[in-house]
Structure to design on (198 residues):
């Protein structure tokens, strides 16, 4: 059991599972900034995975989110990251379940309006160093808007609330915070982002 104090708020959390379950029996590799498989599983469930979806994680890191997405049927699962060494790890973790490739999330090889669902965890404060998060978020959301189908959806886990909100506004996207969680003392939110108003 754990207690997180946040001003006058106290969040109590209980671990229901053992480490063997949370880390998937230590059968996978992790990279800097990897989220736990159980957190990735929660994100996938929130995104309501559809059996005909073309799914994409453009900041895949070690591939935790695509790996958990593969537990549900999908038409295609794509995963990319701009770091070569990270891609190697994702390839090991996602062998036979996702198409893994190297790409900058701001300029992907995906065709316009070809993706049904993006679930991702871009760099956030204190986790992965990035020079200019504001511009990264703005350029990534512009690219996501291009590659998502008109009714496609994007789910983002981050603690960069201002950067994400401004990037969504700049790109004329609708964003809605659907839940909040505390990870390593940081207060993250899961955002649902759409091209059209809900
Ligand atoms: C928070 S980590 C993702 C962790 C991943 N969800 C996992 O569980 O392993 C963010 C990733 O974004 C990648 N990244 C940073 N800037 C990028 C960019 N412009 N394009 C693509 N990937 C980028 C980093 O290499 C890092 O692996």
């Amino acid at each position: 059991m754990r207690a997180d104090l946040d001003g006058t708020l106290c969040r109590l959390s209980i671990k229901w599972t053992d480490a063997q379950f949370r880390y998937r029996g230590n059968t996978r590799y992790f990279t800097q900034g990897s989220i736990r498989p159980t957190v990735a599983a929660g994100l996938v469930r929130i995104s309501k995975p559809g059996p005909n979806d073309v799914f994409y994680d453009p900041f895949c890191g070690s591939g935790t989110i695509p790996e958990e997405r593969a537990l549900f049927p999908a038409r295609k699962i794509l995963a990319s990251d701009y770091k070569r060494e990270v891609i190697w790890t994702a390839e090991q973790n996602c062998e036979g379940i996702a198409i893994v490739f190297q790409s900058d999330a701001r300029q992907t090889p995906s065709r316009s309006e070809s993706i049904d669902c993006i679930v991702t965890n871009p760099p956030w404060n204190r986790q992965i160093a990035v020079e200019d998060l504001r511009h990264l978020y703005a350029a990534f959301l512009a690219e996501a808007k291009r590659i998502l189908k008109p009714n496609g959806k994007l789910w983002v886990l981050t603690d960069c609330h201002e950067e994400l909100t401004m990037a969504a506004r700049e790109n004329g996207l609708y964003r809605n915070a659907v839940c909040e969680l505390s990870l390593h003392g940081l207060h993250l939110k899961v955002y649902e982002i759409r091209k059209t108003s809900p």
In short: Residues 2-194 form a domain with the Rossmann fold fold (CATH 3.40.50.150). The chain has a mean pLDDT of 92.
